[in-house]
Amino acid sequence: MSSDPIVERLKEFAACDVSDALLKLKHPHGGFLADIVMYSPQMQSGDTKIVGPAYTVKFVKNNHVNAPKPPNNYIDTVPEGHVVFISGPSSRQVNALYGGLMSLRAKQRGAAGTVIDGRVRDLAEQRSLNYPVFARGSGTVPAGEVARPSEINVPVKLNSDDQEAWIHPGDYIIADVDGVVCLPKELAEQALELMPAIVEADRKAGIDIANGGELAAAFAKHRGK
């Protein structure tokens, strides 16, 4: 079990709850990282949820010959309880950045799960491990012919033309069937203070609606809008 009390508190909430809190804090897009979805242990199904600090891995294209190289394979250094966050060199990357053997080792290391801003492969193998993997897409070809890991635990930018989002080492990653949220570590305490009231307001609004009440009235009464 994680020794980080923030992780333990975040486990009580869904990714949507975290986004609702971040919106109240005026954080762009509520921390949502668009177009990255659950591929394992099931495809967009089930109650799988991962929560943990981000352990970032930045990939570069092979033609970036002057880019640094890590001294060891990043998967052998993943800290227990962390979420491996892999940043691809392009949103149009065809080759998969991550495969089944990586998950086998990550699971041995006690990682909470893996999020890939790019493609994943070996889905049957991933699912047989019952290991959580979220990705932008899937594929068959490994990364080696076009890209390689370059830097570990550095800020990485989401590959998106529609939003600007950065994932910093130690930011909290919360991912479930609704998607992936990055909670900046400096906002974690503030967000956690807001979430119980947000969840309770929605619970009460749901009761009113289930009893035949109008949605607008339920929102006005419990959400204040």
UniProtKB/TrEMBL annotation:
Q: Where does substrate bind?
A: G99, G100, L101, M102, R121
The UniProt annotation places Mg(2+) binding at D122
Tell me the keywords, alphabetical order: Magnesium, Metal-binding
Q: Which GO terms describe its molecular function?
A: 4-hydroxy-4-methyl-2-oxoglutarate aldolase activity; metal ion binding; oxaloacetate decarboxylase activity
Concerning InterPro entries, the annotation shows: RraA/RraA-like, RraA/RraA-like_sf
Domain of life of the source: Eukaryota
Q: Which cofactor does it need?
A: Mg(2+)
Q: Does the keyword Metal-binding apply?
A: yes
The record's annotation in PANTHER family points to: 4-HYDROXY-4-METHYL-2-OXOGLUTARATE ALDOLASE, 4-HYDROXY-4-METHYL-2-OXOGLUTARATE ALDOLASE 3-RELATED
Q: Know the name of this protein?
A: 4-hydroxy-4-methyl-2-oxoglutarate aldolase
Organism of this sequence: Kwoniella heveanensis BCC8398
Q: What is the lineage of its organism?
A: Eukaryota, Fungi, Dikarya, Basidiomycota, Agaricomycotina
